[in-house]
Each structure stands twice: as structure tokens, then as C-alpha cells.
Amino acid sequence: DAGITQSPRHKVTETGTPVTLRCHQTENHRYMYWYRQDPGHGLRLIHYSYGVKDTDKGEVSDGYSVSRSKTEDFLLTLESATSSQTSVYFCAISDGGLGTDTQYFGPGTRLTVL
Amino acid sequence: DQQVKQNSPSLSVQEGRISILNCDYTNSMFDYFLWYKKYPAEGPTFLISISSIKDKNEDGRFTVFLNKSAKHLSLHIVPSQPGDSAVYFCAASAAGANSKLTFGKGITLSVRP
């Protein structure tokens, strides 16, 4: 298994509070991704990173920001959490970013916004 | 606009029989396709992939078929086992897209003992 950890694994928070999720990898892969999984939607890309300090938006980026100050860490921040951001969040990594590169996923973080 | 479609939300098969999971795509730029398996409370795990230069890729009990003209791929599992019961996601990417994957909504496979 690829060395990917996510923290926390579960979090309950209130509307309007800031939340930061962390993804940590030990594979030294260049690319890192944040997805959310919701019933009826599959996996949707929030943001991704193609190197330290290099990030870009995915298809559902509104309300989220990311940062990558080190190769191994990719942070996802909800500046002011809303109930619509209740979801399961997955981090993924890949090595090449060449379009034929496999992504490997972390175990997920279940976030509930009350 | 859903570019990767898994139109059947669920599939139930008998143990030992073949499971066929289907996936359609609309973006002609997609040239790499993957299947992931997901158990509850776990992250998706990579299962098998196929490049657009091939029409078939096999790995043990799992075979993926690609029909580019129909923009259709399928995953065959033979023989199906109860441990195969999971959600299966089809995903696709295009060259030069930073390996961004577009996922289908998933199919829940149940294998009955």
C-alpha cells in the first residue's frame, strides 16, 4: 500500500468554523489531490498540487483552499464550514502526472458539519 | 455534464459466476482508463487500468475491455467471489491533464454466496 495517511479520520464541527484536513505521504510523489465523495456523485476533485507551492483548482473548489509547503504534506482548509461540506474527503497521490499515471488513495476523513 | 457514466447503480451476482460492470464516457480526449474498488470506510484501491492503445488488459480474475469507437469499457470479474462485494468506480484521464481523473458515480457489486 502507498504510504498515505490522513488526519483526522473523523471530525464533527459547527457551521462557520474553520477546518483543516491533512494529508501526509511517504512516497515522495510529486502530485497530490483532494477529492470529496458524496452519494450519487462519486468522487469529485476539489484541488490538486503538482509540486511544492504549486496548486490548481478542481471541479468543486468553491469554499476550499489548499496549501503545500512540503512535498509530503497537502492541507485542505475549509475557511468557514457549511453543512453542504459534510462529506468524506480523500487524498490521493501520483508520481508522473502524465495522463497514464495511477493515483493511490488515503483512507479518508469523514467530516460532519452541524 | 457527466463525462464518465456508470448507469447501473448496483449489480448482484452469484458466487462463481461472471460479473460485468459497464462504463461509458463522452470525452474523446480520454486515453487512459482505470477501475477502482472501494470497501466501506476505506479509501478506493486501484484495481486495473487500460491505455487507449489496447482493447483488453487482464490481471488474474479481472479483465478490462475497451471499445473506443463506442466509448465504452467494461470490467469482467471471473469467477466472482463474496470478497469482491464493493463499490467499483470507473475513472478516465487525458494526456497532459496532470493525471486528473474523472470518476463515474460507482456501481455497488454484491456477490451472493
Radius of gyration of chain B: 13 Å
Instruction: Please trace the helix and strand order of chain A, writing H or E for each element.
Output: EEEEEEEEEEE
The tally of strands of chain A reads 11
Helix content of chain A: under 10%
Major protein interface: A-B, 28 and 28 residues
The termini of chain A sit apart by: 34 Å
What is the strand content of chain A? over 45%
- Overall mean confidence score, pLDDT of chain A: 93
- The shape of chain A, in one word, is globular
Number of strands of chain B: 11
Termini Cα gap of chain B: 38 Å
Characterize the main sheet of chain B: 6 strands, mixed
- Low-confidence spans of chain B: none
Give a verbal description of the structure:
The complex is a heterodimer of chains A (114) and B (113). Chain A has 114 residues and is mainly beta. In chain A, 0% of the residues lie in helices and 57% in strands. Chain A has strands at residues 4-7, 10-13, 19-25, 31-38, 42-51, 54-57, 64-70, 73-78, 87-94, 104-105, 109-113. By secondary structure, chain B is mainly β. Chain B is globular, with a radius of gyration of 13 Å.
Any chance you could write out the topology, listing elements then pairs?
The complex is a heterodimer of chains A (114) and B (113).
Chain A: E1 4-7, E2 10-13, E3 19-25, E4 31-38, E5 42-51, E6 54-57, E7 64-70, E8 73-78, E9 87-94, E10 104-105, E11 109-113
Chain B: E1 4-5, E2 10-14, E3 19-25, E4 30-38, E5 45-51, E6 56-59, E7 62-67, E8 72-77, E9 86-94, E10 102-103, E11 107-112
Parallel strand pairs in B: 2-11
Antiparallel strand pairs in B: 1-3, 3-8, 4-5, 4-9, 6-7, 7-8, 9-10, 9-11
Features:
heterodimer, A: 114 residues, 11 strands, B: 113 residues, mainly beta, 6-stranded mixed β-sheet, 5-stranded antiparallel β-sheet, 56% strand
Summarize the structure in short.
Chain A is an all-beta fold and 114 residues long.
